[in-house]
Every structure is written in structure tokens, then in C-alpha cells.
TrEMBL record:
Protein known as: 4-(cytidine 5'-diphospho)-2-C-methyl-D-erythritol kinase
Entry keyword Magnesium: no
GO biological processes: terpenoid biosynthetic process
Organism: Populus trichocarpa
Family note: Belongs to the GHMP kinase family. IspE subfamily.
Entries under Gene3D superfamilies matching the protein: 3.30.230.10, GHMP kinase, C-terminal domain (3.30.70.890)
Domain GHMP kinase C-terminal: start-end pairs: 287-348
Length: 392
């Protein structure tokens, strides 16, 4: 798993037409083994039988969870499930227009990374309420939490009556621009579907998820996607960067409110770089500073001037160390691509003693499987978590 701590003590694209802000993703004619406009195809995971009290979940060739019902015990349905809930970074984020409904259209390269939470699900005897606990303070445990919203959404769409005890082991900081809450919601939808025998397809889960959050559909991609609209229009693409490319995430204690960032956003002051041109550059040359454009940086830096200073200092101190330094999403995480190590001043100066620091790398998921926690080879049905805080 990516290590994190709190500091206290050649796939090339060839365009067949002139790229412009009105370019469509289908204008790319890729050279290589993949079609840019098709979903990635991954080999099916072979069925693996398991023994013992700790049971490995099994996926059949059709992608549905087996639960070992045919292999181990036909009388033992799935009752517990532990899943990894990874976060993401926006390699670039262009805001292209303002919509009549008040939202903004964006175009962004999203990529899942190895930093994430761990969520334990257990079937509850209750048929009326979910119980949620967590290892950190400040996380809502009511229906305001996207996990509970996702479970309510799944029951609404499918008519199932499963309720759960959920324990969220939170590693991703909140207000970080890393999509931790959105990932939790997507993971909860996936889990609910497994407990119900996969009543819904992945495509249905992806479509439903947009009703409760714009970033949630992305996590039903295979890990790398070109996202447009409010972020809910997801085009799966092959990963354009090596999965072992290291990075460091540095987040100050202050969070950026997405709503407050957008209040300060001025469309006429954004970059004019065409998003598809940025994709093409990344596919040819990899990640570099000139392609890591985030139109939300100026309003975020206006909201939190110390964040601008942090980015500038990381970039200056890490010359030659990082391929690019940029803010992810609406902030407040600064990402340094190319090295897992923060610059020395992060350790030396009292001003930064409370920053969150984590190394990470890019990850994907295989078709019909959820994301695997780095260092783990399987999803495990394990003992129920201890619940110290729960909604009633």
C-alpha cells in the first residue's frame, strides 16, 4: 500500500483533423493495439477455489461474483466483504464552459492512484437502517455521507432490502481534491451489487452513480479516463502513463471548498489549451509541466494563498526531481510527479509540520473486478469490523 503519514514530530495518438476546442474524442486515430474510443478489454480472471475460514471471493468467466456457492457451500451466501477504495488525481483539468443549470462543463484526464481507503461491509439484521463507523473524526456518519447515499440509491434502483454495517478506514484526507468520497460511494455501489448477486451491470452502476455525484462514475472506468460534462461522461482510455510512475502528494491541513473555489472561478481567465491536444502530448511524451493545466488553481490560490506558495516552493525545490507539479481537482493537494519524496523543507520547517504526505503511483483495475489494494492479490471476506461509532 502506498505509504502516507502526517508530519508532526508507446501509445501514440494521431489526429486526423485539426484539434480545436470543439474537437470530439472520436477525432483521434490511434496507432497501436487499442482503440481510443473503445473500452479496454482485460483477460477474464480464472475461478480460484478457496478453503478455510477466510474465503477468497471468486469471479466466474461472466464476471459475476461466485461467492463460492457452487465450490464451497451452497448454504453460505456472502455476508462480509472488504474492498479497497482508491482516490484519483486530475492530470489536467480544463473548465470549458458554464451551463444553464449553473454547473460547469469540464474536460479532464482522471487517473486512479494507489492511495485509498479500506471499507468493510457486513450484512445487517436490520431491514431499515445502515450503520456506519470510521477511524477518524469529522466524517459524517449520517445520510449526508456518500456511502449511505450510494446504498440508498442501490436499494431504490433494484428494490433490494439489504442493509449494512460499514466501517470506513479513512486514509485519504477530506477536502483534498482527490475524490475520496466519490470513490467511497462507487465502492459502496459495487459492494451492494455483490451482496445482491450482481443484479446490475457495471454500466448501470456507473449511470446510476451520476445521480449523487459528478466524479463517482469515473471510478467505474478501468482506472484512466477522459471525463467531460460535469465529469459524469466517462471515456475509458488506455493508461497514458507508466503505472509504476512515482508521485508524492502533499496536502496542508486547510481544505478547499469546491463550492467556494467555483465562486471565485472566472471563465474568461482560463487556459485556452485544447484538452485533446493535451491528451495527445501526454500519449507521445508523457507527463510534463506544460500539460498539467488546472483551471481551478487560480481561484483555489485566491481562496488559500498559502497553497500557491506551497506549489511554488515544491516546484522550485524539486527542479530535476519532478516532471510536473500541480494541484489536483479543486485542491488542496499538490502533486509532484516523478518522485515519491517530498522536498526537504517539508520536513525542516515548522510551517509544514502538519501537512499530509503520501507517496503513490497510478493503478488500473481489471474488468469485472474492483480495485486491488497494493500488495494484496485478492478481495477477502474476513471477520466483521469493530464498530465504535454508528448512525442510529
Amino acid at each position: 500500500m502506498a505509504s502516507s503519514h502526517l508530519l508532526c514530530n508507446t501509445f501514440h495518438f494521431q489526429s486526423s483533423c485539426n484539434l480545436s476546442s470543439k474537437s470530439n474524442i472520436s477525432s483521434f486515430k490511434p496507432r497501436g493495439p487499442f482503440s481510443f474510443c473503445q473500452q479496454l478489454q482485460f483477460p477474464k480472471t480464472p475461478v480460484v477455489k478457496a478453503t478455510g475460514k477466510k474465503v477468497e471471493l471468486v469471479y466466474d468467466p461472466d464476471g459475476r461474483i461466485n461467492n463460492l456457492a457452487d465450490e464451497v457451500d451452497k448454504q453460505a451466501p456472502l455476508s462480509r466483504l472488504t474492498l479497497f477504495s482508491p482516490c484519483k488525481v486530475n492530470v489536467f483539468l480544463r473548465i470549458t464552459s458554464k451551463r444553464e443549470d449553473g454547473y460547469h462543463d469540464l474536460a479532464s484526464l482522471f487517473h486512479v492512484i494507489s492511495l485509498g481507503d479500506v471499507i468493510k461491509f457486513s450484512l445487517s439484521p436490520s431491514k431499515s437502517i445502515d450503520r456506519l463507523s470510521t477511524n477518524v473524526s469529522g466524517v459524517p456518519l449520517t445520510e449526508d455521507n456518500l456511502i449511505i447515499k450510494a446504498l440508498n440509491l442501490y436499494r431504490k434502483k433494484t428494490g433490494t432490502d439489504n442493509f449494512f454495517w460499514i466501517h470506513l478506514d479513512k486514509n485519504v484526507p477530506t477536502g483534498a481534491g482527490l475524490g475520496g468520497g466519490s470513490s467511497n460511494a462507487a465502492t459502496a455501489l459495487w459492494a451492494a451489487n455483490q451482496f445482491s448477486g450482481c443484479l446490475a451491470t457495471e454500466k448501470e452502476l456507473q449511470e446510476w452513480s451520476s445521480e449523487i455525484g459528478s466524479d463517482i462514475p469515473f471510478f467505474f472506468s478501468h482506472g484512466a479516463a477522459y471525463c467531460t460534462g460535469r465529469g459524469e461522461i466517462v471515456q475509458d482510455i488506455p493508461s497514458l502513463v507508466p503505472l509504476d510512475k512515482p508521485m508524492v502528494l502533499i496536502k496542508p491541513p486547510q481544505a478547499c471548498s469546491t463550492a467556494e473555489v467555483y465562486k471565485r472561478f472566472q471563465l474568461d481567465k482560463t487556459s485556452q489549451a485544447d484538452p485533446l491536444t493535451l491528451l495527445e502530448k501526454i500519449s507521445r511524451n508523457g507527463i510534463s509541466q506544460d500539460v498539467c493545466i488546472n483551471d481551478l488553481e487560480p481561484p483555489a490560490f485566491e481562496l488559500l494563498p498559502s497553497l500557491k506558495r506551497l506549489k511554488q516552493r515544491i516546484a522550485a525545490a524539486g527542479r530535476g526531481q519532478y516532471d510536473a507539479v500541480f494541484m489536483s481537482g479543486s485542491g488542496s493537494t499538490i502533486v509532484g510527479i516523478g518522485s515519491p519524496d517530498p522536498p526537504q523543507f517539508i520536513y525542516d520547517e515548522d510551517e509544514y509540520q502538519d501537512v499530509f504526505v503520501s507517496e503513490a503511483n497510478f493503478i488500473n483495475r481489471e474488468a469485472n473486478q474492483w480495485y486491488q489494494q497494493p500488495g494484496s492479490s485478492s478481495t477477502i471476506c474476513d471477520s466483521p469490523p469493530e464498530f465504535t461509532r454508528a448512525i442510529e
